[in-house]
Design goal:
164 residues, alpha/beta, TIM Barrel, 2 domains
Length: 164
């Protein structure tokens, strides 16, 4: 895992892109990643912050406004709002929270957030319209017979909406 992460780190450096490691503080440390994203079952935010220090990015997955407020208060750099829609990637992700949850998070939380869970070509524009500035898309990409083509389609939809 460290060898793969190290290869990805080199690609990220070459392309001026951040590397956030999912779940694994040890791997993040080993490859000097930019940060880590932690879920419910992972090491606590406070422990991760002690290990990584204040210069690394730490994101937390949240499923409701209470968790979002707690993550913000704890000092998380960003939150992953999940799952927005039903997802095949994580069957234990819980009930979908929907677009309205994004709108509530946007109104009450000041730190950046990423919408994740069941986002695909047919709903990504709605997710962005609801207030998400960032999305994480997994199943729609990895389940595609042509990953590059799917990424380009999604990128084009996002660019059409954001104008970036």
């Amino acid at each position: 895992m460290i060898k793969e992460a190290d290869k990805i780190k080199k690609l990220c450096l070459k392309n001026n892109t951040l590397l956030i490691i999912n779940d694994r503080v040890d791997i993040s440390l080993a490859v000097d990643a930019d940060g880590v994203h932690l879920g419910d079952e992972d090491i606590s935010y406070s422990t991760a912050r002690k290990i990584l220090g204040n210069k690394k990015i730490i994101g937390l997955t949240v499923h409701n406004l209470r968790e979002a407020a707690e993550a913000q208060k704890a000092g998380a750099d960003y939150i992953g709002v999940s799952p927005i829609f039903e997802t095949r990637t994580k069957p234990d992700a819980g009930a979908p929270s929907g677009i309205k949850f994004i709108q509530k998070v946007k109104k009450t939380i000041k730190i950046p957030f990423v919408a994740i869970g069941g986002i695909n070509e047919s709903n990504v524009a709605d997710v962005l319209k609801s207030g998400a500035k960032s999305v994480a898309i997994i199943s729609a990409i990895i389940a595609s017979p042509d990953v590059e083509k799917e990424c380009r389609k999604l990128r084009d939809i996002i660019l059409d909406y954001t104008g970036v």
